Each structure stands twice: as C-alpha cells, then as structure tokens.
Amino acid sequence: MDDTAPRVGVIMGSQSDWPTMAHAVQILEQFGIAHEVRIVSAHRTPDRLVDYAKEAADRGLQAIIAGAGGAAHLPGMVASMTRVPVLGVPVQSAALSGMDSLLSIVQMPGGIPVATFAIGKAGATNAGLFAAALLANADPDLAQRLDAWRAAQTEGVAPIPVREG
Ligand code: RP5
Questions:
Q1: Is residue 164 part of a domain?
Q2: How much of the chain, in percent, has pLDDT values that exceed 90?
Q3: Whole-structure pTM value
C-alpha cells in the first residue's frame, strides 16, 4: 500500500472557508492521516467538482470532508457522484450565521446520504475526528492513537471549575 496516497480528501467551496476547514486538517495532521486539501466549488468550478467526485473512489479516498457556506450544494453534489462517504461541514455564513449552510447540507433527500456536522469550527473538528474513526475500523494503529487522544481529552477536564471574574 502507498502510505503517502491521500486517504481523506478535504474540500471547500472557497478560500474563505479555509479558517473553518483548517480545523479538520489539523486533526488529520495530528493523527498522521494522509490527506489532500482542495478548493472545489459547486457553483464556480462545477467541472472540477464532477471530476473530483467521479475519481475519488478509484484514487483510494476513504472519506471526503466537504465544507461550504450559504447555498451549500457542495457536499450533496459530491455525494451524488461517489460512494465514498461524504462528511459535510456547514461553514458559518455572514448573512444567516450558517443556518443556511446547515439546512442546505443536512436536508438531503433519501437515497444520497451526507453525514452533517455542526456549524463552523466544532463541525470541522468533529468531521476530522469522524474520518479518523472511520479509518480506524481497518487500521489498528490509528485506532490506538484515537483511543489515546480521547483518553487525554478526558484527563484534561478538571473536576472543579476555576472561579473566574
Ligand atoms: C460558498 O460560498 C463557499 O463555500 C463559501 O462559504 C461561500 C462564500 O464564498 P466566497 O464568496 O467567500 O468566495 O460557495
């Protein structure tokens, strides 16, 4: 197996989505999961979207994290053209605080699933963690790293809050 071939694709509709999607990338980097990052817009680069989605499975991608904001068609359109699991991240929009993004992504008609995460940073982080969990099913080393990460997170929660302010 080629260890350097990307196993997860992180795509976003615009450069402006990067500050959000960086949180997914950070998780993948932390777990040493080979990945690629691309701008793929459903509206501005539709041909790029079609090529990316149709080639994803043959290129060995095991999950696609797709972030978009506003009329966020990207995750659903990609999912319609690949069986690779698509994890949708609603990016917080200026006009409607990401409610538009969330509803655009989550309300897929039956038949083409998109796993939809929270709006913004939490969603991007959890999409990264979810991709790690998917891959961990067939990767014992990764499973161990994920278990350790979760144990450290639990360990880091103080039992008593610091009284601030
Ligand atoms: C969507 O439109 C992108 O995903 C982005 O969240 C939103 C705004 O894009 P820009 O106008 O900032 O490029 O396609």
A1: no
A2: 97
A3: 0.97
Residue 74 · residue 13 · CB < 8 Å: yes
Ligand 1 centroid distance, CA of 122 (Å): 19
Count of structural domains, the chain: 1
Q: Which of 12, 14, 91 to mutate to test the pocket of ligand 1 (most atoms within 8 A of CB)?
A: 14
Q: Give the atom of ligand 1 at the shortest distance from the alpha carbon of 12.
A: 4
Residues 6+ apart with CB under 8 A from 6: 34, 35, 36, 59, 60, 61
User: What 3-state class would DSSP assign to 75?
Assistant: helix
Do the interacting molecules here have an ipTM over 0.90?
A: yes
Q: What is the DSSP letter of 85?
A: -
Q: What's 150's domain CATH number?
A: 3.40.50.1970
How far, in Å, from the CA of 14 to the mean position of ligand 1? 5
44 annotated to bind ligand: yes
Tokens 């989505």 found at: 17
